[in-house]
Amino acid sequence: MESLRSTMIKRALIAMDFKGTTLKRIRETGSMIRPGSEQPDPGRKLRSHHTVTTTIIFDRPVHWITPKNTASRHDTPPKHDPSKNTSPLQDTPDTRHSRTVLFLHGGAYLTSFLPLHWSLLNKIMDKRMDLSIVAPDYPLAPEGTWRDAFKLLDVVYRKIFDTSEASSITLLADSAGAGLALAWSMYLRDNSLPLPSSLVLLSPWVDVSMENPDISTVDLIDPYLSPEALRIAGRAWAGDDPIDDWHVSPLHGELEGLPTTHLFTGTADILHPDALRLANAMRSAGTYVHLHTYEAMMHDWMMFSMPEADRCLAELPL
User: Fold this and answer.
1) Strands (E), 58-168
2) What confidence tier does 84 reach under pLDDT thresholds 50, 70, 90?
3) What is d(CA 314, CA 11) in angstroms, rounded to the nearest whole number?
4) For residues 144-175, b (16+ Cβ closer than 10 Å) or e, as one string?
5) Residues 66, 98 contacting (CB under 8 angstroms)
6) What is the C-alpha to C-alpha distance for residues 209 and 206, in angstroms, rounded to an integer?
7) Which residues have C-beta within 8 Å of that of residue 152, sequence separation ≥ 6?
8) Any idea what DSSP says for residue 209?
9) H or E, element range at 119
């Protein structure tokens, strides 16, 4: 049964016409959120609980989050020479713990980290002191496309291998970040590069075309996401490439030979129908997939303060 807290959050989103406001904003400004809503920096709370080292790669910040009692480097962003593409740090922050998580944030490829992302990562780190998290702020549309994100991830991933083995790496991502994570894994496979041990995809957006006919049915009960707003965002992310290119919409790519994948999806999310399609396609391709379906949950419910989010957090296979 859906919790009272979840019901209240959805009612609030409906009352403020969140979907309509989002669609209007992206049509008028190219953004889906209010100015000032982003939080590119991890923030005071996460920094007080854990050690955060920020490096700069291709002029984009990459945050390395490690347990407070084992980290040995900077706790504040280092000074950066704009003439260089990398941080002034001589080496990669130490991620030599039992597990390393590479986290790719959502935001429709238009938005940087939100406070909800940092709250989620803080909760994960509080529960797993043997864990380190690497969180790159990858290039965003319309200035950037998937090509720029892949270029950044290539460097970040190789740096992780300075202190970690592939068998100890999990790729965790939500929403648009989950689509990027899946496409990136396909790129690694195609280029015979080491794959992470598993993918954990939260409310994944894996087909930016939004052409699945079942989406219109779920749209009637989704209080959060607008299909038309996502189509606009997806077109921007694709750049000059077709929107069904697997780099942009990995649901249309070859899905065999990928790591064990855990899909977390809610039935009140317009992305749920494509999550089901992805699970079926991966199984048909011989890739092991575990589908975690949460009834009546909206997009990215695990980011919010509700009992269902706590249950999801407890189930994350990190």
Assistant:
1) 60-67, 99-104, 131-136
2) very low
3) 26
4) bbbebbbebbbbbbebbeebbebebbbbbbbb
5) no
6) 9
7) 57, 58, 60, 62, 136, 138, 139
8) T
9) helix 115-127
pLDDT over 70, % of the chain: 91
The DSSP annotation for 212-244 comes to: -TTHHHHHTT-SS--HHHHHHHHHHHHTTS-TT
Which residue, chain included where needed, has tokens 């855990």?
262
Buried b (16+ CB within 10 A) or exposed e, 190-211: eeeeebbbbbbbbbbbbbbbbe
Domain residue extents for the chain: 4-30+39-315
Based on C-alpha coordinates, what's the Rg of the chain? 19
Listed in sequence order, the residues at least 6 apart from 262 whose beta carbon sits closer than 8 Å to its beta carbon are 198, 199, 200, 201, 289, 290, 292, 316, 317
Q: Under CATH, which number does the domain 4-30+39-315 receive?
A: 3.40.50.1820
Question: How many residues make up the chain in this entry?
Answer: 318
Paired strand residues for 260: 198
Q: How far apart are CA 127 and CA 114, in angstroms?
A: 21
Question: What tens digit of pLDDT does each residue of 133-161 get?
Answer: 999 999 999 999 999 999 999 999 999 98
